[in-house]
Amino acid sequence: MTISTLMTLSPLDGRYATKVAALRPLLSEYGLMHRRVQVEVEWFIALSDAGLEGFAPLSEAARGLMRSLVVRFSEADARAIKEIEKTTNHDVKAVEYWIKSRLQGNAELEKALEFIHFACTSEDINNTSHALMLKAARADVVLPTLDKIVTTLTEMAHRFAAVPMLSRTHGQTASPTTVGKEIANVVARLHRARAVIAEVKLLGKMNGAVGNYNAHSVAYPNNDWEAFSRNVVENALGLTFNPYTIQIEPHDYMAELFDAVTRTNTILIDFARDVWGYISLGFFKQKLKDGEVGSSAMPHKVNPIDFENAEGNFGLANALLAHLSQKLPISRWQRDLTDSTVLRNMGVALGYAVLGYDSLLRGLGKLEINEAALAADLDDSWEVMAEAIQTVMRRHGLPQPYEQLKAFTRGKPMTRDMMQGFIASTDLPQAEKDRLLAMTPGSYIGRAVQLAERI
């Protein structure tokens, strides 16, 4: 049945379908079937090379045919598996039967059909398939998209490294910084967060019904099944072998990965809210797009919708990722099925994250700096020079500099003339007075420029 995008329950498959299209072949049910076929094929080929009595090494032609099932896997193949599942009511068994059906007519492979899914429990296929799905999603979509954000922000940090802006701590005026330095702060956080996502080892196991190689050992007692399984997981599939499991791989690595993505999204929520506020203050303007409407009633509106959409979608992603992280490592005794239905939502969770990344990138692409507004804000906040003055007075041993500046400035509007009058009235050496008199809120930025340019 074809469902209209207007009838989908999830906006990821409707309104936002094009934004998350790159994840669809990787984390959909099609993607899961594709990886199941890959795992079954690689296990089968490896068994043929294991020296098992009754299963000779496959010819190159047979190996090519087997791997073509993976390389050429299509939606039609996935639909055929779903048809088989209507009878089996078991999704992994349907994959096994589909593979066997595709090998009919090949004399060499027909003799070895019962080595398809040999000694495997469904979870041997599923856990490795999920790991392969996440491996592809991380490498092909999540990390490259994060890298685009980091590259964009790094360029902005360098471009605006010397553009001064007023800081606000607790919402109140504070020591000045630069636009570039504030963006560099985010870049530094993202570098660390991205590294954690990239470094999570994706685990897999292929050790049977409860993790002890029971079926393997009863069929071929003299084989080193643990070494064999490790070889398939690590060399054939490119995952990290987990030697100690129950029926399921315990999903601890998934929790690590999802937590790492959640922390990254939280950094970007923080950033999106800050940019939203800077747009509200007029520090940033947004490029106009012909035909766009900001409000159905107020024609003047240019709303920061991309940053709002990013924040909302990161929130949805984090809620789902947190549930995945907290639920998946828990299984009653050697196996329960509560993880199965939850795992089918990996694509939804990461889909909302990718949608948030897309919104953030679109928003960043519309930003234009408003240097006049930044300069006016600084010039209206001479009170922030109090820190500089009292610190220099401390250096020269003048009495109670902090207390003097507190009495003079706290809670009062300050002008250039007032602050410079205070400087002139101090007993500072004339050279120091001259240095302070030459400073403005816009030049009192410490090493912000160097820090921004270095990122």
UniProtKB/TrEMBL annotation:
The keyword Lyase applies. Residues 14-312 form the Fumarate lyase N-terminal domain. GO terms for biological process: 'de novo' AMP biosynthetic process; 'de novo' IMP biosynthetic process. It is an enzyme of class 4 (lyase). SUPFAM superfamilies: L-aspartase-like. Keywords: Lyase, Purine biosynthesis. Its EC number is 4.3.2.2. Catalyzes two reactions in de novo purine nucleotide biosynthesis. Catalyzes the breakdown of 5-aminoimidazole- (N-succinylocarboxamide) ribotide (SAICAR or 2-[5-amino-1-(5-phospho-beta-D-ribosyl)imidazole-4-carboxamido]succinate) to 5-aminoimidazole-4-carboxamide ribotide (AICAR or 5-amino-1-(5-phospho-beta-D-ribosyl)imidazole-4-carboxamide) and fumarate, and of adenylosuccinate (ADS or N(6)-(1,2-dicarboxyethyl)-AMP) to adenosine monophosphate (AMP) and fumarate. This is Adenylosuccinate lyase. It comes from Vitreoscilla filiformis.
